[in-house]
Specification:
59% helix, Fic-like fold, mainly alpha, 3-stranded antiparallel β-sheet, two-stranded antiparallel ribbon, Arc Repressor Mutant, subunit A, 387 residues
Length: 387
């Protein structure tokens, strides 16, 4: 549905230039979303796909294991959209306190993302509401070190920012002036907590993401935090027992369409076109996560059977395999710590996994060797190549 502008333009001065900053109207849209036709069908399909994802996470032998892996995959993808060159392997090396291949600041950004997400999940499970205070806490974690740590972590901005372009005057989009940010975010918080409107949770998440990105309340980190808002809202609303739906890969694969639709909302009020795109992404992403979970379960089951067939030494090899299932990249030193095995025993068991084609050594060194569960990492890496 084509409406009109979904906000007003305020003239403001920044960096010596006069610009028109966009201040969005509070949600929900007026007139309301048209839920007839294709949008309703997409909503039903996306909701069904979410249900499948939620049910398979309950059937996994260790849901925390899947969450550990998927969160790291999402952290890499979301940070890549912002221009980092870090890979999942870089992140795992960094967590081993090894030197990654990507620039240090890139990997720190990804690590910060995990800390922010974990903080948000933990707070929600304590019963804390999804509110502006929590978003500021998560932003503080997100920007705590590395690039952007000097841009007021945990605080709404007090200066004008812009998106695209080399300066405010040629920017693609200018968010609200700083003095309007608090009111805009208060209105968004009210929308998040409003249960009287009866809006389906998936559509609420779709609208909230756009509104957050339009407000751009922080000096940096808005894209990553805006993407985190989606799984947190679905988790808090009870649609997902585990926060396992991450749309960064979908947004990464359709970046031009994503930005075009955000602009169309602001200038034409075409919320329905955005909702179509968003719900298609939810369905694709949820079904993809279900397939990934099934592939990982099949991989683990097959490799356990292969390891059991080793014969003598199988018990120790299975203990090493279990450690690699929990962290697909490990040094022998850490394996000894996590499995309570001696170094010679762990080394011998690891070599059995290497000979069986399950693990491989990364460094080529004789000391301080690092081993990776290669097939596991390959599955997680799909779509995760830097842009």
């Amino acid at each position: 549905m084509i409406r009109t502008l979904t906000g007003t333009y305020h003239t403001t001065a920044t960096s010596g230039e006069t610009v028109r900053a966009f201040v969005p109207f509070p949600l929900p849209p007026d007139p309301p979303l048209d839920l007839s036709g294709s949008l309703l069908r997409l909503l039903e399909r996306a909701t069904l796909a979410i249900g499948r994802l939620d049910s398979i996470s309950a059937l996994l032998p260790d849901p925390k294991l899947f969450l550990y892996a998927y969160v790291r995959r999402e952290a890499v993808l979301s940070s890549q959209i912002e221009g980092t060159q870090s890979s999942l392997s870089d992140l795992l090396l960094f967590e081993l306190e090894e030197v990654p291949g990507a620039p240090f600041d890139d990997v720190v950004e990804v690590s910060n993302y995990i800390a922010a997400l974990n903080h948000g999940i933990s707070r929600l499970r304590e019963g804390f509401p999804l509110c502006n205070r929590l978003l500021r806490e998560m932003h503080e974690k997100l920007m705590s070190r590395g690039r952007g740590s000097d841009k007021n972590p945990g605080e709404f901005r007090r200066s004008q920012n812009w998106i695209g372009g080399t300066r405010p005057g040629n920017a693609r989009f200018v968010p609200p002036p700083p003095h309007d940010v608090e009111d805009c975010m208060s209105a968004l918080e009210h929308f998040l907590h409003d249960e009287l409107g009866g809006m389906p949770l998936l559509l609420k998440a779709a609208l909230a993401h756009v509104q957050f990105e339009t407000i751009h309340p922080f000096l940096d980190g808005n894209g990553r935090l805006g993407r985190l808002l989606i799984p947190l809202l679905l988790h808090q609303g009870g649609l997902l027992a585990q926060p396992l739906l991450y749309l960064s890969l979908y947004f990464k694969q359709h970046r031009p369409v994503y930005y075009e639709l955000l602009d169309r909302i602001r200038t034409q009020g075409d919320w329905e076109a955005w909702a179509d795109f968003f719900l298609e992404g939810v369905e694709q992403t949820a079904l993809g996560a279900v397939q990934t979970a099934r592939r990982l379960v099949a991989l683990f089951d097959g490799d356990i059977r292969r390891t059991q067939d080793i014969g003598r030494g199988a018990a120790n090899a299975l203990r090493i395999l279990d450690a690699l299932r929990h962290r697909p990249m490990l040094s022998l030193k850490q394996l000894c710590l996590t499995s309570s095995m001696t170094f010679p025993t762990a080394s011998k068991a690891m070599q059995q996994l290497v000979r069986n084609g399950i693990a491989c050594e990364l460094t080529g060194q004789r000391r301080n060797r690092i081993f990776v569960y290669d097939a596991y990492l390959t599955i997680l890496n799909e779509g995760g190549e830097p842009l």
